[in-house]
Amino acid sequence: MKITPSKVVSMQYQIAEANGEILESSEPGDEWCFLVGSGELPPGLEKALEGHEVGDSVSVTLAPADAYGEREEDLVQTIPRSEMGEDMEVAVGDKLEAETDDGWDFVTVVALDDENVTIDGNHELAGKTLKFDVKIIEIRDATPEELEHGHAHGEGCEDDEEWEEEWEDDEEDDDEEEKA
Ligand SMILES: [Zn+2]
Fold it and tell me: What is the CATH number of domain 73-120?
């Protein structure tokens, strides 16, 4: 079986900076699992994997545009603490869920003082040229449910409960909008 759209792929991975410094890697048994064509993977990596089979190793170096995008400085925002929840404790490096122009997204706290909190909505790997080394462990057909959700399910997949609940909530909202 080859990697084509609508397959679910599990792979071991390592992400390094252009200078070789390793940023992330999978533990044995903790593979990266994704639905091909869902946009879960950086576009350049997905392209590089196309047509490969189980057991193949793929190594590719990607410019930011093909990896996690260029950094966008307007995604860095300073907001008054009073706009955050009452008594909300934050520290530099915290990841928060915040409402952005594109809906709810994760942002990183990059600075703070008594008055303000500065958050960065860029992906932490945005703006970097990255070298991906992956080894393909499993390829299977996506289930109808996975295709409907637009992401992979199962061991090692990013279908944590919170995400599933969010997805269910979105569905309910959609149903309500249809009724209205
Ligand atoms: Zn799902």
Answer: 2.40.10.330
